Amino acid sequence: MTSAPGSTTSPERASAAVGGAKGTVDFAMTMSPPELAAHLFGTGFEALRIDGARPLHTVPFTTFEHPDARRALERADVLITAWGAPRLSDADLDRAPRLRYLLYAGGQGAILLPESARERGIQVSNAGWLNAIPVAEFTVAMIVLANKRAFEANRMYRRRRARIDREIEFPRAGNRGKTVGVVGASRIGRIVIERLRGMDLNVQVYDPFLDAAEAARLGVTPLALDELMRSSDIVTLHPPLNTSTAGMITAELLALLPDGATLINTSRGAIIDQTALLDELRTGRIEAILDVTVPEVLPRDSELYTLPNVFLTPHISGSMGTEIRRLGEHVATELERIVLGQPLAFPEELP
Fold it and tell me: Hey, which residues are catalytic here?
């Protein structure tokens, strides 16, 4: 589980800090493709030019099998990683006696480490809270457009190529007074809730771990999942994917959605029973906005490409383009804290 922004490491972990005013922190980088580093940190990795921080190589490694990568790992105090980075094995960590920090420019860095990392005293920081921002922004934009019936209006306009009387064709369009159901009060779900707060919407949430006091603080109505599906104009999915959430949106739950409702998924495709979703979409009864699917790249003959009531995007809701630099700045800030001997601002609890 990731700690909230501003959390600090425990005193015993903090005492393991390297660097500070007394020495230099050496860091290695791994990600794929290597060109990603320029998007994260700028040309020549300018964001990482921190007094007291020294890069051990000039191009990020994509594997630890290369002799140069092994030599860098042997000397590294900090390993800077991003998506596409290889997992570290116990053997890799045996060859990295100085390694104390892994900084991940993404949602969860612990997946790159073996179980022994905790006992070895390795600390991890991730950029999950920052990566949640563009996902939430994308979601809110889709909610606004879906309530305005923008996707349906686009199809109608292209088909008719004539004036559309919006009051006749879309009498229930608009965001005023609509109900949005948020499944999962995760960090993304919470940002969505906060961004919707200034709009004239009724926001309700399903999350079995959200207590009444926290729901009141967020200004949302907690409901059982079946109630939320039955009473929402738009349902947006934000739970993590694990054994308890895989396939949680079943055929029975999809059937509860009101006619004309919109289902938004920016979480993971496996959250939904995709066969059941296809069956429901074929009826034309509901709309779907899908940024994620199963598999992640659909086969060329998938109906999701052609169904008119599906708005399909290739997993673009997360950080992309100019947004990636925000993640790099996060990593640079954490690296600077290490150099100064300060605890990580965004520590990730290791299993």
Answer: 268, 296, 315
